[in-house]
Structure formats: structure tokens, C-alpha cells
Amino acid sequence: MPLQVCMGAMMMCTFGVAPSSLVVLPANKVLTGEVPDANIMDHIPMTNIMPFGMCTSIANPEVAAATAAALGVLTPMPCIPNTPAPWIPGAPTVLLGNMPTLDNTCQLMCLWAGVITFSDAGQETVMVP
What is the pTM of this model? Predict the structure, then answer.
């Protein structure tokens, strides 16, 4: 069963070298265990999605430039998430702030070709439609 995602959920990016924690602002006023719950619109870089350490994606212009300068040797650069679209698919039967709720099976695409997934939902509450 999918788990509701809340503030503090742990995420990983396929091109990041470290985990990151989801930041959820209390705008929707729904709390689980005294922390805000998330919906699919909690995808804003450097507000909701914090860096994953270093980025290893050659699609990232900074990584590409550093790799070119190193004569083709992959050179990771600091991660700056670029996530312009919402999480997919969301939980359409459970709305939070008129948007689908975020569960631990959702994914977020980074413009630098990374796929962000959850390694921990931040809590153990099972979603019931």
C-alpha cells in the first residue's frame, strides 16, 4: 500500500550522490505526526527539493562543461535541482489542497535527466482513498 509523504521524507536522484530531504511548507494545513503532508505541487527547486550533493548527469550544463574541461573525464558538479513539472502520478483519489496527494510511489523528473524517488515516506500512515 502506498504511504502518504510528508515533510522530512527522504529522496534520492538517479544522478545525485547523496540523499535529500523533502521540505513541505504548511500551506495546505494538513499535518501527519505534526509535520505538513505533501501534494504533487511540492516540486519547487530549492524550496521543496534540496540538492542531492553532487550531480553526475552529463545533461547538466555545469557537469558537461567541467567534463569537457577535464578532457572527457566525468567531473561531478554541485547539484542544483531543476524540477519544473509536478510529481507524477500522484494519488488522484486523495486530494490535498485540491491537488493529488503525494505518495511514496511518485516520481519527479529533473531537467538534467535525473529521476527523483522516495526511499522513506517520512511516516508510516497508509493512504486510504
Answer: 0.91
